[in-house]
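Reviewer 2 asked us to include a model.

Predict the structure of this chain.
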Amino acid sequence: MERFVVHPSVVFRELDGETVLLNLDSGVYFGLDAVGTRVWALLLEHGAAEPVCEQMEREYDVTREQLEHDVQRLMTELQQKGLIVAADS
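Predicted model (structure tokens):
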């Protein structure tokens, strides 16, 4: 299971149920809605997609297939934007 951590140059803040992420090195700014914020919080806690999906499956009325697709898509985008990195890098 691949594990991820927040890039060291990223700061983030939750405001009214949404989260704003900023990479201070690259200037990349990214906003998360309420569901994205929940993924972010669980990713910070667990560091991997599988436990994030397991927890969200208990909280949301969504198929596991759709959940895994959506979580993976968000994590890929966060990684491409340099907001999260593989834990071993």
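The chain has a mean pLDDT of 94. Residues 30 and 70 are 17 Å apart (CA to CA). We have added this to the supplementary material.
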